[in-house]
Amino acid sequence: MKVDIQNHVDHLPALNGITVSSTHDPLILDETCLMASIIYYFTTIRATLHALSNLLTRSNRMASKAPTVTDGTANVDAKPSEIDRELTISVITEADTEDVLDLLKRFFFKDEPLNTYVQLGECKELEKYCTKSLGERSSYKAINSRGEIVGVILNGTIMKPQPGDEPPEKLATNCAHPKFRKIMALMDHVDEQFDIFELYPDIDRFLDCKILSVDTNYRGMGIAGMLTDRTLEYATRNDIKLIHVLCSSHFSARVMEKMDFTEVFRLPYADYHVDGEQVFEPEKPHVALRILTKRLDH
């Protein structure tokens, strides 16, 4: 028995400077063997954990260099290499109708604060409203190097009513879509409260900027400003002295203010009621419908 224990102890590795006694006393041998075995066990565990820690650290370093995907406003399907900055601004023709509507359905129909608030969804009336002036060739598109439309500004000319003209039909009158009819009723209310031709009696027509929309993947690149600049050039070439923009979005109003447009009318959404109830309460910072204008002859 003494020989078996001694042989076991003799074959243990040197641990942390521990010297195993060469005595053959059974009790000392048993205690020494037990202590050495325990130290050996925990030393092995410590070494394993250290190696595992190094492996995890290296894995984390590798993971930190891997690309990540976020759920922000940008389309996660779009890779940075697919978003090019070789953009061209050109006039929209009626042949572009379907491509323009495709962009609007993916972004404007969903992003515009009033559309979002009423959860508009599919709306043929809004499609018609957006595209009815394309034949004027006063609207513009931003296209990338692959020919994809990534932004639009849709404009139309509004003429000053003449004596004897029939009053224009209310926008909401024949609107079948119940949610869009609420938005059109708001526009009718604004027309009743504000007459731009009274504010500018020397103006016989103006260019109305109806829709401004940019692909979320291309925002922050100045596309809205480029489209507005081209609209101003069109107005100047055609001797149109006033640009008019009705902004339901805080962000579109900011774009126009940066382009030196001036606010001439404001209707806080909290002040617009039908049958005693507030109709629209979009998320902040969209708190008011605003009209901004810019004269081109001053």
TrEMBL record:
One of its GO terms (molecular function) is aralkylamine N-acetyltransferase activity. Its EC number is 2.3.1.87. Pathway: Aromatic compound metabolism; melatonin biosynthesis; melatonin from serotonin: step 1/2. InterPro entries: Acyl_CoA_acyltransferase. It is an enzyme of class 2 (transferase). Belongs to the acetyltransferase family. AANAT subfamily. This is aralkylamine N-acetyltransferase. It comes from Anopheles minimus.
